[in-house]
Amino acid sequence: MAEISSLGYVGFGVSNLDKWQTFATDILGMQVGRRDASSMTLRMDEYCQRFFLEQSDADDIIAAGWEFTSEQELESYVAELGDKGIELQALSAEQCARRHIEKGYRCQDPNGFDHEFFFGHGVALLKDQFRSSVLKSRFITGELGVGHILPFANRNNGAETVEFYKNVLKFRVSDYIRQEVQPGLTVEATFFHTKTGRHHSIATAQAPSPKVLNHFMVQVEDIDDVGLAYDRAVAAGVPIVLELGHHPNDKMFSFYAQTPSGFNFEFGWGGIVIDEGNWEVKTYHQMSDWGHKRNPVSQA
């Protein structure tokens, strides 16, 4: 049975490309791949793109790109989705060229954004290797993919969303966090991984949020880069949403701050990779072991 390899890229609709370019390069440490009046791609490694941004008032996620290692795997997976009654569209040649992929399909998430499935990512030229102007180390990507995303089930459809991720898209359940955040209000989050094992490539929780995307996460190789990114964010006046802290399930040391589009990013170090043969699904009852103190931040 064909299975998703990793989260290959993520697409956002953003209202201010200029702010995003400064934020992505000077705070996160990414590199601009291509920029024109209405779009921009961002690099984190040898891939031609890991994020694409399109001019839009949405200021939210518009696509999650899921990578397969071969055309056969992709076609087998897409056929299985079709058998399940999922409506799929093939990406046009122009869209594939803009994504730097050989072939792709898309379907819609219960919360309105697209899931894109592809193989054959573009590799940058040897003379154009990834260079960050601020990172001490590098992003942890490779077969683990970009990082992770946490889209909210914001249409009172938490159960439908979990069912879609688990039984339609076939993500593997990593674990659960159920935390009573105030008397009578419990947040229930479900975390999913792909076959390459990053603790989670996607997670979701039901919440009445105006935006679908709560946050995306990128991971770095050196813990110092988390502290340096935190200092850059504070110095630049980027709103810090959650201070430095540690998660109990993926063991990530990280902080969260707000992007120019109002949704958040997590910048982390130390996240675990699941060994499927020794993994036990657990339920945790707190989002953080320590830290991650929440600051009052207004949504952009």
TrEMBL record:
The keyword Metal-binding applies. GO terms for molecular function: dioxygenase activity; ferrous iron binding. Pfam families: BphC_D1, Glyoxalase. Residues 6-120, 145-270 form the VOC domain. InterPro entries: Glyas_Bleomycin-R_OHBP_Dase, Glyas_Fos-R_dOase_dom, VOC_core, Xdiol_ring_cleave_dOase_1/2. PROSITE patterns: EXTRADIOL_DIOXYGENAS, VOC. The keyword Ligase does not apply. Keywords: Aromatic hydrocarbons catabolism, Dioxygenase, Iron, Metal-binding, Oxidoreductase, Repeat. Gene3D superfamilies: 2,3-Dihydroxybiphenyl 1,2-Dioxygenase, domain 1. SUPFAM superfamilies: Glyoxalase/Bleomycin resistance protein/Dihydroxybiphenyl dioxygenase. Its cofactor is Fe(2+). CDD domains: BphC1-RGP6_C_like, BphC1-RGP6_N_like. Belongs to the extradiol ring-cleavage dioxygenase family. This is Glyoxalase.
